[in-house]
Each structure stands twice: as C-alpha cells, then as structure tokens.
Amino acid sequence: MKPLFVERMGHGPDLTLLHGWGLNGAVWNSIRDALAERFTLHLIDLPGHGYSQHVGIGSFTATAEHVTRAMPQRGHLLGWSIGGQFAIELVRLVPDKIDKLVLIATTPQFIANPAWPHGKKTATLDQFAKNLKENYHATIREFLALQILNHPDQRATIAELQTAVSARGAPDIAHLTAGLELLRSNDLRNQIQNIRHQTLVIQGDRDALTSERAGHWLAAQIPSSQYEMIPFATHAPFLSHRDIFMARLMQFLHS
User: Which whole number is the average pLDDT over 18-43?
Assistant: First the structure.
C-alpha cells in the first residue's frame, strides 16, 4: 500500500495534525511556523487529499489504520473536523502512540437523528454530493464559505482556504464523495467515554458545520477533557481566531 504524504518540520515533542474534508496539510500554513518552534510537526495529507491523492479512501477504520503508519512512534495528536473523527478512531486503534489529544470543531456524528439532534440533515450531504458532480469548483467555494460564515474578515479567510486547497492539487471528486459517505455513516458516540487521554475540545459558537452543542457533549463525555468555546469563532478557529486558538493550544500542550 502506498504511503501517505507527510510534511515534517520543527523540533521538540512530536505533534501530528489531521486536516478536514476537501483540504490538505497546507491548511495549517498560518500556524505551522509558530508550532514548529516548540514541536516536531507531522502534517499528514489524508487519503485522497493533497499529495496523498494516489491513496484511495476505504472504510473509516481501514483509512484510519493507513494514517497510523504515517504517525510518529508517539506524540500529541490534533484533528480538525473529519480529521478530528479520525483522531477519535486512532485513539481506539493505537492508544499508546498518543499523548495528548486535541479535537477542533469535531462532532462524533455529523448526521442528525432522534437520538442525536446536534447534527445536520441528511439532505445537506445529499445536496453536497449532487453539487460536487455538477459543479466541483462552485461546491468547494460554497463549502469553504461555510467554514468561516459570519466572520468579519470572511473574504481574506476564504482566500487563505482556497490557497490551501490548490497548494497541493485539487482532490479527486470520487475521493471527496467517498469522504462525504464517511461523514454520512460515522457514529463514534460509543467510543468517546473510553478516551482516557488528556483532551482539549475547541469549538466556535459561530460554527456553521459543527454544532456548539456537539462540542460541549463531546467534552462532557471524555473523563480527562477541557472545553474551550471561542466566542464568534467559526469552523476554522485556527484561522478566524488565530491568536486565541494558539494561546489555548500551547497552554494545554505545555501544561
């Protein structure tokens, strides 16, 4: 099986970062230099994304197992959005490889149902999948806009995200569709209370993709967790509220 692309830089304790759907490791460009002063970074392009486009997306667990082979022997793990869902699965698969866990704008289940009211309607993903096939570029722009909806500097932040998308080549539509199917089927709620790692859950109250209630639920279920709700932050708080995000992250990882 072909290896995933990993960009490594910095010095200090190991820190692996997992990006969200439709993006790649370049999304961390605005914070990676500051992090690299304190940590050895492992910026993984997830299967089907960025420089890992040659790696197909299989089942959720099989894809997560592939990610484990790109991780260092042991270190901290940070996941954003669907990258956070993979991080939760990695805790189950390789708990001894992980020190502290950081979950950003992460929900254990993206789709809502009577037992989980904190998700999105199935029709949301259905429309996204349909739009991907009809107009890929417009759909990606719409998705990026949702990530920083209601942010006052929305135009500049969208440009930053678009730069990250194009930095390593646009992902294949088939891979993006497979990622949406993972979001449709994932239900990680039963795994959450078994997480024994020190965990930081970061959520924005202006997140248009992940409910603030989902983040609060997540933190409440993890025994050794800290919850950081950033007021006015969007789905990408490391972009919309970079200074606050970095201060809280550094405090947690160095505590």
Answer: 95
- Is 81 a residue of the active site? yes
pTM of the model: 0.94
Catalytic residue from among 19, 118, 175, 235 = 235
pLDDT for residue 206: 87
Catalytic residue among 45, 76, 151, 207: 207
**Closest of 8, 80, 78, 51 to residue 172, by C-alpha:** 51
Residue 22 CB: number of other CB atoms within 10 A?
25
Contact indicator for 51, 45 with CB cutoff of 8 Å:
yes
What pLDDT is stored for residue 149 in this prediction?
A: 62
Which residues are paired to 116 by β-bridges? 113
Catalytic: which of 81, 211, 225, 240?
81
Query: What spatial distance separates the first Cα and last Cα of the chain, rounded to whole Å?
Result: 38
Q: Which domains does the chain have, with CATH numbers?
A: 6-254 (3.40.50.1820)
